[in-house]
Amino acid sequence: MPFDGVLLPSRILLTAKEAYTSPSVKQLLVAGAVTLTCQSEKGRPICGLATRAALLWKEFDQRFFSIPDPALREHTLHTARDEIKRRLNRDSARPWFAVDATGHNIELENLTYRQVLRRLVALTFLSRERWGGKAPIFTIPIFHAASPEISTLDSSFGQALGAAADKPLHPENILRLLQFFRLPKQKPVSLIPRLDEYFETWFKKDPFWQAEDVDAVMNLDAQRTFILLGPVLNRFIRGRDW
């Protein structure tokens, strides 16, 4: 049967005018940089532009995720926990979740219900006044009392819970929150709640969509995204919005 041509998809189209790639990510691609190889969540090699996020990924592969013994890996993570939290907050699209009112990294057990609510808002309510991902925070059972309107979210939550809003999370609620974060049929949360046996999954699962939606990234920082790109294609990117 006659045909006029063949359409071949390619990652080189990342910088095309029609591409969904965020403008700041396109700029990184056009500026040119080295690429590197990391291990995906499934243990397979993936290539990406050497952003701060990709460099962090490769470093974590070498230092933590390559440790086969679960007990030794857990011990190593625990030993380096302060550095890991700091690096996540600086370089990753998935920052450390438990941060107190003064900006210090803590654990879930030290957060109050109101602090959890405010942190979730800070990480999921985007710059264009929309919720990121597919699971707005008011769908979390613990926060059913909160209004979905951002302007009244905090006050409605405080009125519903009263003094309990400023109490530390109950252990059962911590478990429920972590279970909600790990629901299998929803988009992975853009945060790291624990340095536990699921840390590699928290860190790696579905990590590429932020390159098409930098609004969902802290400080709109494209360097926090993992941009899929191999060394060959990297050589042929010459411009953007062509």
From TrEMBL:
InterPro entries per record: Fas1/AflB-like_central, Fungal_FAS
Pfam families reported for this sequence: Fas1-AflB-like_hel (PF08354)
A GO molecular-function annotation: enoyl-[acyl-carrier-protein] reductase (NADH) activity
Domain of life of the native organism: Eukaryota
Key words, A-Z: Multifunctional enzyme, Transferase
EC number: 2.3.1.86
Keyword Transferase: yes
Keyword Transferase: yes
Domain Fatty acid synthase beta subunit AflB /Fas1-like central: from-to ranges: 1-132, 155-237
Enzyme class: transferase
Chemical reaction(s) catalysed: acetyl-CoA + n malonyl-CoA + 2n NADPH + 4n H(+) = a long-chain-acyl-CoA + n CoA + n CO2 + 2n NADP(+)
Record's protein name: fatty-acyl-CoA synthase system
Biological source species: Aspergillus heteromorphus CBS 117.55
